[in-house]
Amino acid sequence: MDFLETNVFTGFATLLTAIIAISLYYWEQTKKRRDAAKIIIQEIRRAEDIINEYKEHKVYKFTKKIIATNSWAKNVHYFVGDLAQDEIDKISSLYSTGEYLDSIIARVSDLKFDENISTYKNQMNQIVAELQNKVNNQAPQSTSVGTQSGAQPIQQQIQKVIPIEIPIPPPWKVLFDEISDTYEPIYHSSICEKLKKIAKI
To answer: What is the pTM of this model?
Structure first.
């Protein structure tokens, strides 16, 4: 009898230990899932704020990274059962696009200032040369009478043709314009609403 009671107690203790271990495991997984959802929501909000700021002002601050950390890649498995495939794709697209732009930003930031100045000067010299050739080709042959009657020298004509600032958009700006203008925000969509429910916020 004592033997049976001992076996029953041992079996019950083992079962109870297993239940507690499983409960702790699921509690830890739920907490990790909730914490991951909170972080991902913050990362989405931050990334879209930077993109929207650029879209509005057309000026990018190179001290900011669109994707500072990629918590989505590490924790996407927690949300496979909660999000539809197209919703997962949209979040993944935001992160991949942000990381791609960050890589472009890093390359732009690594360029030397002197190289940028040199390139800009070469472009400006080329524009001035083309404008000067155009003015020379279009300007009538000057005569002494024409000069005395008030005809303007070629240099003054060029100054009137050349604007004060000639915008030469860098390649990265064209890329940013294209992406920011076509990007569809998801922070205020049903996707983040689902994540907020998981995060309980």
So the answer is: 0.65
